Amino acid sequence: QVQLVESGGGLVQPGGSLRLSCVASGTIFRINAMGWYRQTPGKQRELVATITRIGITNYADSVKGRFTISRDNAKNTVHLQMNSLKPEDTAVYYCSISTDYDRYWGQGTQVTVSS
């Protein structure tokens, strides 16, 4: 069984920063892609950023230049550094990993950007 535990969400003022972390545990042979997605009420979950096992990254246009994704393969961990946060970044952020056989999701962490 695979578990993803996210941390680092919270309330921040516009222009501020937050760092999200996600640790994967359980029976995992090998993690391929790791990523962050977000969802607001009434909308579909959308991609924020992904990173391959060898470090190739992909970002949504709305976060390019502000967010940075990174991972530690030895610790099965992925991070999302979020800078210059805007109110429209408010959402529940979900961590996701893909293995050779399946895809897993975390429980989500709330990020609220408000003054």
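Next protein, fold it too.
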Amino acid sequence: QVQLVESGGGLVQAGGSLRLSCAASGRTFRRYVTGWFRQAPGKEREFVAAVDWSGRTTIYADSVKGRFTISSDNAKNTVSLQMNGLKPEETADYYCNVDVMVRDGLRLVRKVYWGKGTLVTVSS
């Protein structure tokens, strides 16, 4: 179906920047939403940013607006997240996903694919 692999995580000082990438392989879709979530230890997974297939419609969590930028490259089957002004509290595992509607016989079923995550550590 779809395989997603994140990269770009690592250690960065507070106020620094990091760029995450997610490479997709397998089945392709005409319409989809792809984005990033993050999960800190002991916390719920939270939404960070998303972009639709056109690359023109984006949404961001309020906490990252103005600092993070999501972008996609359909030709390369990748989605990236540029993170600027990182804060220690944003230390987390970052996951990319693809959200699509899949035909199942006569039905359309929502399917969400997830990568395994990449760790971002922001030191103070």
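About the second fold: Residues 12 and 115 are 22 Å apart (CA to CA).
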